C-alpha cells in the first residue's frame, strides 16, 4: 500500500527524524572535522604549471615546495608536486613512479611519493643538474616505440638530494618532463616520471 507524505512534512527516513538534537550536533561536528582534515580540501598551491615556466623552472618550483613541505600549509609541497604531475587526476594508469599506478586522487599520489621518494620531503638541500634531452617518452607517445621520433617536448633533470638529519646517504632522482598536450595545463612542462637514479648511472 502506498502512502503520500504531506507537502512540507519531513519523510520518515530523513536523518533528522531519527536523531535526537544532541546526536545531530555530534554528526555535524564530525562532518565539519572530516571536511577540514581531508587532504584534498586545501587552497591553490603557490606555483602551478603554466606554459610560461621553463622545464628547469618547473623542477625548481617543485623542489622549492617539497623541501619545505608544510609551508604555507600542511603537505603544500606534495600538493605542488601533484599539480606538476603529468598524469594527475587522470582515469588512466600512470608510470610516474616506474610502475603502473592510479594517480586519480591526491592521496594515492601522497602514498607513492612518501614511500618511493621520501628523501625529497623536507630535504636539507638539493642540487638540480643540467637539462638533458630525452630520446623516448616514459609513458608512450612521441619518442617511444609506439609513437613518432623524439620532439622538443621531452627533457630530464637529475636532482641530488641531501635528506634532513644527515643520517641517510644523499639520493639522486630523475625528473622526466613533457609538455602537457591536453586540458588546462596544455603547453606547460609537467613531470611524466620521477625515478630514483640507478647507482653508477
UniProtKB/TrEMBL annotation:
It comes from the Eukaryota. Residues 132-156 are annotated as: Disordered. PANTHER family: OS05G0574700 PROTEIN (PTHR35716:SF1), OS05G0574700 PROTEIN-RELATED (PTHR35716). This is Guanylyl and adenylyl cyclase family protein. It comes from Raphidocelis subcapitata. The lineage of its organism: Eukaryota, Viridiplantae, Chlorophyta, core chlorophytes, Chlorophyceae.
